[in-house]
Amino acid sequence: MNFSGRNVVVLGVADESSIAWAIARAFHAHGATVWIGYQQKFFSRVRMLLRQYADVQGQRCDVTDDAEMQAFFDRFRGAPIDVLVHAVAFAPPELFTEPPSAATPEAFAQSQRISALSLASVVRHAKPYLREWGSVITLSFQASERAEPMYGMMGVAKAALESLVRYLALELGELRVRVNAISPGPIETPAATGILMAFLGQRDLRGALRHDVALAALDTARRQLGDDADPVACASAAWQHVQQAFAERSAIREAISAEDVAGCALFLGSDYARKITGQVVRVDCGLSSSMII
Fold this sequence. Notes:
Layout: E1 7-11, H1 19-29, E2 33-38, H2 43-52, E3 57-60, H3 66-74, E4 81-86, H4 94-97, H5 105-126, E5 130-139, H6 154-173, E6 178-184, H7 190-200, H8 205-209, H9 212-225, H10 231-247, H11 258-269, E7 280-283, H12 287-290
Parallel strand pairs: 1-2, 1-4, 2-3, 4-5, 5-6, 6-7
């Protein structure tokens, strides 16, 4: 695929291991002019990435700050956007570790605002600059369709996000702009590691997690690294076991990588997918449709 002469915007880059960065790199490798948006708290990490890719442009773009979003998208007045990637999600730790009935209105609202509603906010700011036959892509997860204890109330936010994709597809269809979501299998990212770290702080791990695969992964990681191991290292090691466990239950017994997701994003951003909109495309080796128990 050749994206030369096309402008691609990727929001949600946190560091080198983030799916957003894998997507940005993939479009860059195929000739696109790439712009990335990030939160200020990730600037030190993102700056290192921008030094490696001098022709990739980056600017702060907090999706909860209208002024920042306006400043970010105003630069595209003379350079319409061909592909817009929304890779943003967040929920307070207690929404992962506490039962749904314990969710506070404030925590629930924050997860919905950042993980779901922000897609609508981003589209509102980007809409004047989206080129005809452009593509908007967001990231979901299979917990949107079935309860995943490890994912907590973030699954509710992802369900809202997927519904929003369908409604935005109707809105932007009049402009011949499509809107789709990619739903990957388990991937180790900073956010994923953070979820397991939240559980590591619980006294009753089994009562909080209620997920046999994740429990087994954490137990294995602890045995390998020791009880005094660094929580980040323990959570990272556990995620590798989680990926392997789910790979063994999938039709294609392989783990999913950020590069696999980036490949799907390239397709959805290309002219080959110009008549695909309002869809959730699963990149999970068949995990969601043929999980082997």
